[in-house]
Amino acid sequence: MVDEKLLSKYDIPTPRYTSYPTVPYWQTEPILENVWKDRLMDSILKSPSLSLYIHLPFCEMLCTYCGCNKRITRNHGVEQPYLATLLKEWQLYRKEFPTSPTVQELHLGGGTPTFFSPENLVDFMGKLMSDLEISADADFSFEAHPSSTTTDHVEQLGKIGFNRISLGIQDFSLDILTRINRFQTLEQIENITYSARTNHYTSINYDLIYGLPGQTIKHISQNMAQVERLKPDRIAFYSYAHVPWVKPGQRAYSEKDLPVGMEKQRLFEEGKKLLLEIGYLPIGMDHFALATDDLFKAFSNKDLHRNFMGYTPKDTAILLGLGVSAISSNENTYIQNYRDLATYQKKIENGHLPIEKGHLIQVEEQETGRQIRNILCQYETSWDPTFLDSASGLHIKSDLIDSENDGLIRQKENGLEVTHLGKSYLRNICLIFDDKYRAKKPINPLFSKSI
């Protein structure tokens, strides 16, 4: 049963916390290229293990719900020049490395990675991998749009080491897909799923969204019926983030077209109930997995990690992002590449890392980030007794008492654990520790609502 009073209190714009500080609260001063290089190389000397994210921004059509950084084109002549630029960016890093880092995980994201032909992707990966040290248990994954992904993509990428695939389904219903300008068929989803199993992929993920325009309980039930039939290993069951001030494509529909508040929360609760009934187990704030999947195993062992790629079973201190708009991080620095494609390419052609902005993480920010990750990954956290002695400590203590009174958390000595009810309000619990947000609450819309 959804508590309407509680929902109205906590359904507020809230960060998703893939980092702390969140990107809008990064420092305004630019990060010098040499500063990032020095900090990155220090990290590699300490622990030469990294995750590699590669952003492939092109899509043939604009899906109006989408909040990703993408470039719409039907000109596939952009493929090879862009891949060549990615290799040049990698070489700018590679020549600086004091030792050869080992790749624990590699992910192709977008945009639409399968906009690129299998031949071009395999050629690119061959050149990249010839210069990589790869862990024996490395995970290689890619995002797949059902309408552009062929069995050849699955087979060819599987042959060179890809073992995970994430299908961006969002909804199975034609009427919802039509509203969000996304076109795919059930047959395409089935073919990719069966091909991934035939080619020995160890994990298949389905991305599904609740809160899309026109979506009802019936749609959610139909979606979960297909999930039960096809049985992917993981489900990412995301809340639709309506941010038309950031993504103008979302102005294709208005608030009146969207399930909001209680109506939207009921969609999530129905989907969660059905997922649990068919054998999926909850992880974090919006993920579910079978008990046999590595993501659930990592969660059970308290090894689950969260970074700019979302939830991952691999905890590496370094995330290196290649491509337009890609974000990189180590234990004390964040940087983001230029979001404009032409500027990104020009910087690399001129021999410079394409850094648009970044943030030097302070010691107290590192500790706050640890608390937030623990809450999102483990449903609990603990702190040193001095942690709440800061200037913001009184505010945190007051908010903790308020959240405990609302039944979202149970306080422990120097720590907390999230209750069953609180798992629906994880972003709000994390907000308690967010000094940046508390000090400068946004006047204009900045984040999507937490529900």
Question: Any chance you could write out the topology, listing elements then pairs?
Answer:
Blueprint: H1 4-10, H2 33-46, E1 49-56, E2 58-59, E3 71-72, H3 79-94, E4 102-110, H4 118-129, E5 133-144, H5 151-159, E6 164-170, H6 174-179, H7 186-198, E7 203-210, H8 217-230, E8 234-239, H9 261-277, E9 281-283, E10 287-289, H10 294-300, E11 305-307, E12 310-312, E13 318-322, E14 327-330, E15 333-337, H11 341-349, E16 355-360, H12 363-378, E17 380-382, H13 393-405, E18 409-412, E19 415-418, H14 426-431, H15 435-439
Parallel strand pairs: 1-4, 1-13, 2-3, 4-5, 5-6, 6-7, 7-8
Antiparallel strand pairs: 8-10, 9-10, 11-12, 14-15, 15-16, 17-19, 18-19
Helix pairs in contact: 3-4, 4-5, 5-7, 8-9
Task: Describe, in plain words, how this protein is organized in 3D.
By secondary structure, the chain is α/β, with parallel strands linked by helices. It has two domains: 1-21 and 363-451, Arc Repressor Mutant, subunit A, CATH 1.10.10.920; 23-321, tm_1862 like domain (pyruvate-formate lyase- activating enzyme). 36% of the residues lie in helices and 22% in strands. The chain is built from 15 helices and 19 strands. The chain has helices at 4-10, 33-46, 79-94, 118-129, 151-159, 174-179, 186-198, 217-230, 261-277, 294-300, 341-349, 363-378, 393-405, 426-431, 435-439; strands spanning 49-56, 58-59, 71-72, 102-110, 133-144, 164-170, 203-210, 234-239, 281-283, 287-289, 305-307, 310-312, 318-322, 327-330, 333-337, 355-360, 380-382, 409-412, 415-418. The strands form five sheets. Strands 9-10-8-7-6-5-4-1-13 form a nine-stranded mixed beta sheet, with helices on both faces. The protein has a three-stranded antiparallel beta sheet with strand order 14-15-16, covered by helices on one side. A three-stranded antiparallel beta sheet has the order 17-19-18. Helix 3 runs parallel beside helix 4 (118-129). The longest helix is centred in the middle third of the chain and has 17 residues, at 261-277. The relative contact order is 0.15.
